[in-house]
Design a protein that fits this description.
Elements (H helix, E strand, L loop, with lengths): L4 H6 L7 E4 L3 E5 L9 E5 L11 H18 L6 E5 L15 E6 L18 H11 L2
Antiparallel strand pairs: 1-2, 2-3, 3-5, 4-5
Bound molecules: adenosine monophosphate (AMP) and zinc ion.
């Protein structure tokens, strides 16, 4: 897609530090890392987010996430976060599907998840029913 920065990386119109590539997907270093080694895995074809990305492509991306996670062990992280932002409200800035792989270190101060809400009595079951009926 025109004007998509990740499509430009796929077409090698702009540079990226590639870690892995095959016919379907690409892994490269995030240019503004939360920690050194922060990597993005993208499909080579343009899909906006998880909802638009076909299941087999998502599955393939996850295989690469697993592969790169093992590679990141070379940096001796204390942990690894896997994250995907989908749509603006979830923090997506680049609207070409991508999965973040973020090496973590004890005390690095990056704490992305805090519980902000609680379920009311019976709400878990009601919500589960709603989601399951849409699967
Ligand atoms: P998101 O907020 O999930 O859409 O994340 C987009 C990510 O893409 C950010 O972490 C950016 O630092 C990263 N990014 C943007 N442009 C480039 C680029 N040219 N090369 C590598 N990473 C990039
Ligand atoms: Zn794109």
């Amino acid at each position: 897609m025109e004007n998509c920065i990740f499509c430009k990386i796929v077409k090698e119109e702009i540079p990226a530090t590639k870690l892995y590539e095959d016919s379907e997907a690409l892994a490269f270093l995030d240019i503004n890392p939360i920690n050194i080694g922060h990597t993005l895995v993208i499909p080579k074809k343009h899909f906006k987010n998880i909802l638009e990305t076909p299941e087999d492509i998502m599955a393939h991306m996850m295989k690469i996430v697993k592969k790169v996670s093992h590679g990141l062990e070379a940096l001796k992280p204390d942990g690894i976060n896997i994250k995907m932002n989908n749509k603006e409200a979830a923090g997506q800035d680049v609207f070409h599907s991508h999965i973040h792989i973020m090496p973590r270190y004890k005390g690095d101060g990056f704490e992305p998840w805090h519980s902000k809400t609680k379920y009311k009595e019976g709400q878990k079951e009601e919500i589960a029913k709603k989601i399951i009926s849409a699967l």
